Amino acid sequence: MNESPYYHSLAIGTHGGYATMKKYRSAGDGSWEGAYHALRDIGKDPDGEPVILPEPREAYERMEALGIRLVLDSQKEFPEALRHIPYPPFGIYLRGEALPAAVSMLAIVGTRRASADGKKTARYFAGELSAAGFGIASGLAFGIDAAAHVGALAANGTTVAVLAGGLDDVYPHSHDALARRILAAGGTLVSEYPPGEPPLGYRFIERNRIMSGISRGVLVVEAPESSGALATARYAAEQNRELFVVPGAVSANNFKGSHALIRQGAELVTSPDDILAAYNIDKKECAAAAHAGTSPEEILILKALAEISTPVDVDKLIVLTRLEPRIVIRTLSFLLLRGIIKESEQGYTI
Prior knowledge:
This protein is α/β, with parallel strands linked by helices. Helices cover 45% and strands 12% of the residues. A nine-stranded mixed beta sheet has the order 1-2-6-5-4-3-7-8-9, with helices on both faces. A two-stranded antiparallel ribbon has the order 10-11.
């Protein structure tokens, strides 16, 4: 049974309200179809406000016509890392490619009112980490977020933008061109909210848990005391993600939040190499892995191998790359013949 149209209709009717959707899923039979019928029959949300649910199939087709797709937590394409965070989203909306299963993501965040030096730092870290095989996640906002996306794109890397509103209307509007560049480069736009939902203030905080949740770690480049980047840092701590912070001048207000994070135990970094070292990643090996393949399948497998320091067997590679078993086996054979990887009793390595 395809639950997606019912979920989508419920998300529209409740404006993506997490608590309301959870309540009516429980009130039904545990399915989104049951939740849809439960809320439709009652006709009111928990606050007594009337709720109008669109016809599921028609609403779903309108969403698809916008180039947006919905991935539920029960589906294979749903990011595995998001299943295990506190308050995981029930579903995510995507434009562009599927979130890359074989690429480690790193979130880069900071203030919207970033200094010229802060934006330069964000671009530099994003570019170097992209070249080493990381994908870069951020929020498409002004300042550090946009600089991180631009840095990743300049390095021909993978970048993902997590938005606080519906994917039919990019916010901020002046970054619509940047969003198109991300999509054209094979990146992804992500949101928890259905099309038509505006980027309300509290949603920026809610989306931050997804930004850190899809990532292996979070890098804070420039954050004052009131920066939303500090919320992302808190989520990173709750989700057991690594937290890295670039320090700044002790007298600069834009770094007061950053320095507070360092005092609380975040790792101070002054170079992308510091982050790679924290993950025991060899920069040259990762760069070679990212560019040695001549097919998308080879690149997926090489990136997966580059991220794991121990030998990997075929079954694990199938899970990491989400490729069909026959394709994984065939691609491994080609890579062995060309001397790019080696095989041992324990598995495959670069």
